[in-house]
Amino acid sequence: MNAIKVIKKQYAAFTLVEMLIVLFVISVLVLLFVPSLTNQRSRITESGNQAFIQVVQTQVELYQMNEDQPVTYSNLVANNYLSQEQADRAVELNLDLNDLP
């Protein structure tokens, strides 16, 4: 009976080689997937920025049709064409209201 307990204790844990193999496999998987996730995030950000530019462009066109004042971010916010958060984001993206397509 004692011999069985001794044998079980010898094989109860992973060996160092097995742990190194597992760490190696995990490292390879991380190296494969992290760049893909980073690229996906930048594509999503770019897509969101393009959609936002389209919204600002549409609101500027609507403002030009309905108002006689010059198009500025403060006028767009004051007349409820853009929210203050949208105007701030447009400034962060360096959108020039005169150069919108």
From TrEMBL:
Its main location: membrane. Gene3D superfamilies: Glycoprotein, Type 4 Pilin. It is found in: Cell membrane; Cell surface. GO terms for cellular component: cell surface; plasma membrane; type II protein secretion system complex. The chain crosses the membrane at residues 12-34. It is a single-pass membrane protein. Pfam families: N_methyl (PF07963). The keyword Methyltransferase does not apply. GO terms for biological process: establishment of competence for transformation; protein secretion by the type II secretion system. Keywords: Cell membrane, Competence, Membrane, Methylation, Transmembrane, Transmembrane helix. Belongs to the ComGC family. This is Competence protein ComGC. It comes from Vagococcus salmoninarum.
